[in-house]
Specification:
Blueprint: E1 8-15, H1 20-28, E2 37-44, E3 47-54, H2 60-64, E4 75-81, E5 88-92, E6 95-105, H3 108-119, H4 133-141, H5 147-157, E7 160-168, E8 171-175, E9 185-189, E10 192-196, E11 208-212, E12 218-222, E13 225-230, E14 238-239, H6 241-246, E15 252-253, E16 256-257, H7 258-273, E17 282-285, H8 290-301, E18 309-311, H9 325-334, E19 336-338, E20 347-352, H10 359-370, E21 375-380, H11 404-413, H12 419-426, H13 431-444, E22 448-451, H14 454-461, E23 468-469, H15 471-474
Parallel strand pairs: 14-23, 17-20, 20-21, 21-22
Antiparallel strand pairs: 1-4, 1-10, 2-3, 2-4, 5-6, 6-7, 7-8, 8-12, 9-10, 9-11, 12-13, 15-16, 18-19
Helix pairs in contact: 3-4, 4-5, 7-8, 7-14, 11-13
Length: 477
């Protein structure tokens, strides 16, 4: 996906013994979810001990390697973030606690102004001039008489999404977003428990699956057990992009494997296309998240899977970008290295997880043609993205007009498009939809272009579609 990834991941542990080792490696297993900031905090005999580092050009393990030799505690949490520095240590009438969040706050300015007007509280600006969202969440929590009321109040007031871990000297409080847009998974072992974003992060640390928190559920973890303090709600809208793009292949959400879901998406696209070995020579995936989609496509179609593009990762954190704008696109393309013998003269199906702005996939196709490809049939594992996400920070786009689908629609209909018209463009059986796809294909320079259908994508997950958020594709809340 050619977007500016904005996400966070976390790993919290409460053990009868020291938990620094588990939190260090468990947090590192979330490195694919963030590239800018990381932090860890522990509570032990000497109270709270925290460390935060910038990880833009240095891996998490390298930045925190020296810290873990000094840090101690049997309660702790770590987080990877793409924006705000966290976890924060907060001193309030609740006592001292540490807080980490995965959030999208659409009404941040309104909440900030309201809080300032009420009590004269001030907020520290980050380097970009924005307020730290985790600091705002802490301020909302502190409006109430106890932590549970405060967490519920923060989730009620925030327009967007909020999942959090809150560490006190007594235990680790975990609160999943009210509609479960992002996950909280609990693992257990003989020594205690952990709470994580990615379920696979604890498997090599000797934990077993315990359970996932339900939407809106608040629980507290101690080394002795897990206690639900606020029961889960019935409605859920978990982000479907967690399977399509964000999730690590070995992760599971709501019991559904990320790798298997992607595989099924590829199978569905192959069935719709009907390509055989007579039509194309190879199926390839754009590394990394396009690979499983492509494997499903290849196995269902019978067209051989191939890797004509490999991603060079040993010394290139995916966040690395030079300050000189003119070099940024070149750097992004330089991470992919072609294998000319697998490209030259080939008719290929090229599968990516999605098409957002279109820039990188277009350049990848140009790259393949320049390397001797005969045909490039591009396939996206999800439908055209028509709406900017209101619930996850998967892109800090300033306008929906940065979405290639919306730019093409604007050329046909103007920028102020009626909702019924957008609904028609979202319908894969409509004439408008097909015309939009044709224009995107021509602009991108593909031999052909196809998107996965929304119904096929939801079927690939195998859970109740009403529990999955599809806002970015069809604008449904």
């Amino acid at each position: 996906m050619e977007k500016e990834d904005i996400m966070s991941g976390f790993f919290g542990a409460v053990l009868k013994s020291d938990c620094v080792f588990d939190v260090f490696f468990g947090t590192d297993y979330h490195s694919h979810l963030g590239t800018r900031r990381a932090g860890m905090v522990f509570y032990g005999e000497d109270g709270f001990d925290r460390s935060i580092h910038n990880i833009e050009n240095t891996p998490f393990r390298t930045k925190f390697d020296s810290d873990i030799h000094q840090m101690r505690g049997n309660l702790g949490l770590g987080c990877i973030s793409d924006y705000e520095a966290q976890p924060l240590i907060v001193r309030s009438h609740h006592g001292t606690y540490a807080l980490a969040t995965v959030s999208k706050i659409n009404n941040m300015d309104e909440l900030t102004e309201e809080i300032i007007q009420k009590g004269g509280t001030h907020f520290l600006e980050m380097s970009g001039g924005d307020i730290n969202a985790t600091e705002l969440v802490a301020t909302l929590i502190n409006q109430k008489d106890n932590l549970i009321e405060g967490i519920c109040y923060a989730q009620e007031r925030i327009d967007g999404a909020l999942t959090l871990l809150l560490l006190t000297p007594d235990g680790l409080y975990c609160a999943r977003d009210r509609l479960g847009r992002t996950p909280v998974v609990i693992g257990r072992k003989e020594d205690g428990y952990c709470a994580v974003f990615e379920s696979c992060s604890y498997l090599n640390l000797e934990y077993e699956d315990d359970r996932e928190l339900g939407p809106g559920e608040i629980a507290v973890l101690t080394p002795e057990g897990v206690k639900t303090l606020v029961a889960p709600g019935k409605d859920m809208r978990i982000c479907t992009f967690l399977w399509i793009y964000y999730g690590y292949p070995s992760a599971r959400y709501e019991g559904v494997s990320v790798e298997e879901m992607r595989y099924h998406c590829g199978m569905a696209m192959a069935e719709r296309d009907g390509f055989t070995k007579e039509d194309v020579d190879i199926v390839a995936g754009v590394p990394d998240s396009g690979i499983a989609h492509a494997m499903g496509y290849a196995n269902r179609s019978g067209v051989p899977f191939s890797r004509p593009l490999v991603k060079y990762t040993p010394t290139w954190p995916r966040s690395f970008m030079p300050t000189i704008q003119s070099k940024r696109n070149l750097i992004a393309k330089m991470k992919l290295i072609p294998i000319h013998e697998l490209i030259r003269g080939k008719r290929m199906v090229l599968v990516d997880d999605s098409i957002v702005r279109g820039t990188q996939l277009r350049e990848t196709a140009e790259f393949l043609f320049e390397s001797g490809a005969k045909e490039v049939h591009a396939r996206a594992a999800c439908p055209p993205i028509l709406f900017g996400c209101k619930y996850l920070n998967f892109s800090r786009s300033n306008s929906e007009m940065e979405l290639i689908a919306r730019r093409v629609i604007a050329e046909e209909e103007g920028e102020n498009v009626d909702r019924t018209v957008l609904d028609d463009y979202a319908d894969p059986d409509s004439d408008r939809y097909h015309k939009m796809v044709e224009k995107i294909c021509k602009r991108m320079g593909f031999t052909s272009l196809g998107y996965n259908r929304l119904d096929d994508m939801l079927d690939a997950a195998g859970i109740d579609p009403s529990k999955m958020c599809t806002y970015c594709w069809n604008g449904r809340e």
